[in-house]
Amino acid sequence: MAELQVIDHPLIAHKLTLMRKKETSTKNFRQLLDEISTLMAYEVLRDCPVHDVDIETPLEATTGSMIDGKKVVFVSILRAGNGILDGMLRVVPGARVGHIGLYRQPKTLVAVEYYFKLPDNLPERDIVLVDPMLATGNTAIAAVERLKEFHPKSIKFVCLLTCPEGIEAMNRAHPDVPIYTAAVDRQLDDHGYIRPGLGDAGDRIFGTK
Ligand code: URA
Known about the structure:
Blueprint: E1 4-6, H1 10-20, H2 26-44, E2 50-56, E3 61-67, E4 72-78, H3 82-91, E5 96-104, E6 111-117, E7 126-130, E8 133-134, H4 138-148, E9 154-158, E10 161-162, H5 164-173, E11 179-181, E12 183-184, E13 187-188, E14 194-195, H6 201-206
Parallel strand pairs: 1-11, 4-5, 4-7, 7-9, 8-10, 9-11, 10-12
Antiparallel strand pairs: 2-3, 5-6, 13-14
Helix pairs in contact: 1-2, 2-3
Bound molecules: uracil.
């Protein structure tokens, strides 16, 4: 069973509530997602590897601890995943970035790939795969399957919102991939939307319909 971590900090809950409101503007929605992503990065990267470095303060020599940002790869599932990317990159600016283009066929909700670009040396890297909504799980499952072809050191999946159906599907397909989320909502509806949810994340981030 994959680890599920609900990052339920009051700051995140507050911002997520604003995002859910239907009257929240595109500009504010995008900004709130960006802020939540930065806050979530703090927990998502809690166990990332660090190494000792010898430094000198103005007063004396000492040993500090640093993460190797270049070993971290944020992989965005297009297009909504890009809404999480900048917030994460703000705290790990040296990270590499990959993109996976997947869309859900409206009738079957099956994931179809149209773009795939990753950095090299994946076996040396820790992947943080990002997509705001883990709904049916089809897209995230397909993305993880593709990433595993490159044998990365580790994969974590980060979303803003999910539901019991999405967690179960992901757990069944990839029990080795931990899921980080800001909230677990009540259910998936017949159209593949999370309820109560926040609507279509991509449309709300980019102001499309
Ligand atoms: N994707 C979205 O953007 N919203 C949902 O509720 C489910 C999937």
